[in-house]
Design a protein that fits this description.
Elements lengths: L1 H21 L23 H17 L3 H8 L24 H6 L7 H14 L4 H16 L7 H5 L25 H15 L12 E4 L12 E5 L2 E4 L1
Antiparallel strand pairs: 1-3, 2-3
Length: 236
């Protein structure tokens, strides 16, 4: 019983001490102590001790400035804007339409954005908006896959300079990468920005390969076809 009482008294003391310490300078003159010497321990009156401690706590709380109390009890601030009903926070809202694309601000970014934008321009600038999104999804799905490099630039340039090994034909067709259609480059840059910012990849169901429907590569026989968009088949 004695050890239990001692434990209970110590727990109460720790609770009171934490509360006193959190209040700051208003508690500077308050001291709570308990003996750790078993030879001086007396049989405690727990009810009286608890009542005394709570009274001291109430007295200390009354000394706290009201502004200090607001600071202590205030909820943490957040920089996130309020989330509307049915909306997912911080994920770009997209629509696979020309109207949506035209409504987006001109995009920019670092090396990863540039590599993805260039890939979309040279590989898919003639496709519909959904077709361009689909090609971008394949590239980013590869980045996420352990079977491919883990950056956009490395995925796009995988096999470049090796005959019949480049993954994206524009990187090994022997032609200089020159942007002759700046409006098209601006548009695919918006798509690259949206997906790099976390827009959902809803079109290709995790595809990591695609080919034009006019050809029949042997590898297509062993992968699962996931989508058909703008004359291309997509596989994972």
């Amino acid at each position: 019983m004695r050890s239990y009482s001692k434990f209970f008294r110590t727990a109460v003391w720790l609770f009171a001490f934490a509360l006193v310490n959190a209040a700051g300078s208003a508690y500077a003159d308050m001291r709570l102590s308990t003996s750790t010497d078993p030879g001086t321990e007396q049989k405690p009156d727990l009810n009286n001790q608890l009542t005394s401690l709570l009274g001291q706590e109430h007295q200390a709380l009354r000394q706290i400035n009201i502004d200090r109390m607001r600071v202590i009890t205030a909820a943490p601030k957040t920089s996130l804007r309020p989330v509307k009903r049915g909306e997912t926070p911080d994920i770009p809202k997209i629509s696979y339409t020309r109207e949506w694309l035209n409504s987006q601000p001109v995009a920019s970014g670092g090396a990863e954005w540039e590599c993805l934008t260039q890939a979309l321009y040279f590989e898919a600038r003639g496709e519909s908006v959904s077709g361009q999104f689909a090609v971008a999804e394949v590239i980013l799905n590869r980045v996420d896959s352990s079977r491919f490099p883990n950056t956009v630039c490395a995925v796009v340039n995988q096999g470049t300079g090796k005959r019949n090994q480049c993954q994206f034909s524009y990187t090994c067709d022997g032609k200089a990468e020159v942007v002759n259609e700046p409006a098209a480059y601006t548009n695919v840059g918006k798509i690259a920005r949206a997906l790099l910012d976390g827009a959902p990849r809803n079109l290709t169901v995790g595809a990591t390969y695609y080919h034009n429907q006019s050809v029949r590569p042997r590898w297509a026989r062993v992968f699962t076809r996931t989508a058909s968009i703008d004359g291309h088949f997509f596989y994972r």
